[in-house]
């Protein structure tokens, strides 16, 4: 697939309507890259940049985002594979006809399409989620470009809305559990706090000071429960020093190249495990 080359006309820069493939093809620091550095090394980051991950889960997530945030683009971006037995003559003909009609669309299985549709319906049945994702005036899939710590950085915001002059970022997430307790764990485990902090920095650099960062969370399995969370200001601010530290590591990666785990480092065990050992409880 040929992807149009894109270069921001100025820095900082906001681009609405930029195709997803064009945005992802632009080489710049991003929240996803910083999250890799946060949990591993620049060697892992370099591998991910050279071999970007794409699997069923990511494809399903993209389909859901399109259904919820830009439904008018869904049929242009995705196609559902027909149910056919490709071992038969009729099945082969059906499949070949389908492939010829797909073009550059992302192909979903019927199961993926049904699952994305069920999650989208759940979001639309949740009054606040529907307001944030569809009804309140705003822009979906907003691409922002700014220099953070002297490094060219990009962000793809699911939705940017404004209420009474307050700029609000809406971030659509899927999760095994949308409960408050479990999603707070997800914020740490999946680096969502790093993402929120970086997005706030980029938006502010682009002249859009963010008043609220809102997660719309939908569960991946029936009954597809939905929750809406406003990320607390103190929690979001607490991630800022870590983001700037990761930006510094990224700059070093750009100047020195990728590096794995180096040197000799002391290691122990988690605090909870140490306490259990001292208490004589080994969970055996």
Characterization of the model:
The chain has a six-stranded mixed sheet with strand order 1-4-5-6-7-8, sandwiched between helices. Strands 2-3 form a two-stranded parallel ribbon. By secondary structure, it is α/β, with parallel strands linked by helices. Helix 2 runs antiparallel to helix 10 and helix 4 packs across helix 7. The termini are far apart. 48% of the residues lie in helices and 21% in strands.
In a few lines, what is going on in this structure?
The protein is an alpha/beta fold and 284 residues long. The protein is built from 13 helices and eight strands. It is globular.
Task: Set out the fold topology.
Elements: E1 13-16, H1 20-25, H2 31-39, H3 42-50, H4 56-69, H5 74-77, E2 78-80, H6 89-102, E3 106-108, H7 110-125, H8 127-135, E4 138-148, E5 151-163, E6 166-175, H9 180-189, H10 192-205, E7 210-219, E8 226-230, H11 233-238, H12 240-256, H13 271-279
Parallel strand pairs: 2-3, 6-7
Antiparallel strand pairs: 1-4, 4-5, 5-6, 7-8
Which properties best describe this structure?
284 residues; six-stranded mixed beta sheet; alpha/beta; 13 helices; Lambda Exonuclease, Chain A; 21% strand
């Amino acid at each position: 697939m040929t992807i149009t080359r894109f270069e921001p006309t100025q820095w900082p820069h906001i681009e609405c309507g930029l195709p997803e493939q064009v945005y992802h093809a632009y080489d710049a620091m991003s929240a996803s890259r910083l999250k890799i550095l946060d949990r591993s090394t620049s060697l892992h980051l370099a591998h991910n940049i050279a071999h970007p991950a794409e699997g069923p889960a990511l494809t399903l997530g993209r389909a859901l985002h399109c259904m919820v945030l830009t439904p008018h683009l869904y049929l242009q971006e995705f196609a559902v594979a027909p149910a056919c037995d490709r071992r038969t003559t009729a099945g082969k003909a059906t499949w070949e006809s389908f492939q010829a009609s797909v073009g550059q669309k992302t192909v979903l299985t019927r199961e993926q399409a049904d699952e994305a549709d069920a999650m989208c319906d759940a979001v639309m049945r949740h009054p606040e989620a529907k307001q944030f994702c569809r009804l309140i005036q705003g822009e979906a899939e907003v691409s922002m470009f700014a220099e953070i710590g002297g490094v060219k950085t990009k962000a793809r915001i699911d939705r940017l809305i404004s209420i009474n002059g307050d700029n609000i970022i809406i971030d659509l997430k899927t999760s095994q559990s949308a409960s408050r307790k479990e999603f707070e764990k997800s914020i740490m485990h999946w680096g969502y706090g790093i993402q929120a902090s970086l997005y706030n920095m980029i938006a502010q650099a682009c002249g859009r000071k963010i008043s609220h960062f809102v997660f719309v969370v939908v569960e991946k399995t029936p009954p597809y429960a939905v929750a809406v969370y406003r990320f607390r200001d103190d929690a979001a601010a607490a991630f800022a020093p870590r983001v700037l530290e990761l930006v510094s590591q990224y700059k070093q990666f750009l100047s020195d190249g990728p590096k794995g785990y180096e040197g000799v480092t002391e290691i122990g065990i988690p605090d909870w495990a140490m306490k259990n050992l001292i208490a004589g409880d080994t969970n055996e």
